[in-house]
Each structure stands twice: as C-alpha cells, then as structure tokens.
Design a protein that fits this description.
With 204 residues, the chain is α/β, with parallel strands linked by helices. The chain has one domain (2-202): Rossmann fold. The protein has helices at 13-23, 40-49, 60-72, 75-83, 94-105, 109-121, 137-150, 158-161, 163-178, 191-203, and strands at 2-6, 28-32, 87-91, 129-133, 185-188. This is Thymidylate kinase.
C-alpha cells in the first residue's frame, strides 16, 4: 500500500510522516521526493531552483519532467510497495507536480498532462490514499522561515521564497483533492484525523 503526504513547504509533512510511523503496527517504509541524495534528475532540478541552471526554471514543464523522472527512478520500489502487505509512506508524490505546475501556469489543464506523464507514460503506481495537509499558508510560511533561520543548510529555493506561488499551490492542492485526482484523497490540517483515516484504511 502506498500513501502520499502532500502539502506546501512548511506544512508539516515530515512531522506527520513520523507520527504515522509511530501510530502504525505494520512494517512502514518512508520515501521522500525529490530524492536529492540519490537521483541525478532531482539534483538537476535542485540546481535549477537555486539559480545554477540558467533559465531552466522558467519552464514549468521542464521542471515537472525532471521531478517525474526522479520518481521513475524509484519505480521498482514503488511497484513492490503497491503489491505488498507493508506500507510505503511518501513525502510528496505526483500530485506535487500537478499542484505546483498548475500554480505556476495558472492553468489546471497541466494537471491532466502530469497525470498522463507520471501514471500512463512512466507507469508509476497510483497511491491508495493521498493526503493534503492543508496547513494555513501563513503558518506554513512562518515554519519555513524559522527552519531556514535555524539551519544554514535549509536555505529556501526559488519556489519556497515565492509566497504567491505557495498560496496558489495550496489552492491547486484543494482542487486536486476535491476531484479525487488519481485516487482517494483526504484534505485537512487536523493531523489526528489524518492518522485516524490511515489507521482505518490499513485496517481494511
């Protein structure tokens, strides 16, 4: 089973992932995207987000393709999890591509393009549940700024610095959840409700 945790920067995704691990009594693996330590595609995207790849970030489609190829590099692990009795929790998945791309372009049509790229052309498995951790944008921004101030290695990238983009991305996530894009969703800022839903799903 695969469960994807989605949200804007500073939403608390990593905290939620750890709470889920503690609450579950089945084998749990965690995989975070982008895989900056392991994937050349993620590393190129990161370089671009820090202004070291020329005008690459000017293309939402180019950036989305790099992030999708990063996930494709983990396809065997994703497929194994989808077919096993254990649980793989993802910190970001394909919906992050759909939300950020739609926010950047101001056009939800790109959501269909991301779906076709990641699930059809690249053949990635769909998650059993996608969670939008809908932390208020202002709260998430404060957390991201505090994280940067406390840790010199967590300098904000171009996406994280753009408050308008973060707000537009949160709104895009809401629309993805409302239409159950690529499967079942839950959208809430209440981490207890999310943990309860996951426990129910695992129990089923």
């Amino acid at each position: 089973m695969i469960i994807a945790i989605e949200g804007i920067d500073g939403a608390g995704k990593n905290t939620l992932v750890h709470k889920l691990r503690d609450a579950l009594d089945i084998p749990v693996e965690v995989l975070s995207f982008p895989r900056y330590a392991d994937s050349i595609h993620a590393q190129l995207a990161q370089e671009a987000l820090y202004g070291r790849m020329g005008d690459l970030t000017s293309s939402a489609y180019a950036m989305a393709t790099l992030f999708a190829l990063d996930r494709h590099g983990a396809k065997s692990q994703l497929e194994a999890a989808a077919e096993s009795s254990s649980l793989l929790i993802l910190d970001r998945y394909a919906a992050s591509n759909a939300a950020y791309s739609a926010a950047r372009l101001g056009d939800d049509a790109v959501m269909d393009w991301v779906y076709e790229l990641e699930f059809d052309r690249l053949g990635l498995p769909k998650p059993s549940l996608q969670v939008f951790l809908s932390t208020p944008v202002e709260v998430a921004a404060q957390r991201a700024s505090s994280r940067e101030a406390e840790d010199a290695t967590r300098e904000k990238d171009q996406y994280e610095k753009d408050s308008d983009l973060q707000a537009a991305t949160a709104a895009a996530y809401e629309r993805l959840a409302a239409c159950n894009w690529a499967g079942q969703w839950i959208a809430t800022a209440d981490q207890g409700s999310i943990i309860g839903k996951v426990l129910d799903l695992v129990g089923e």
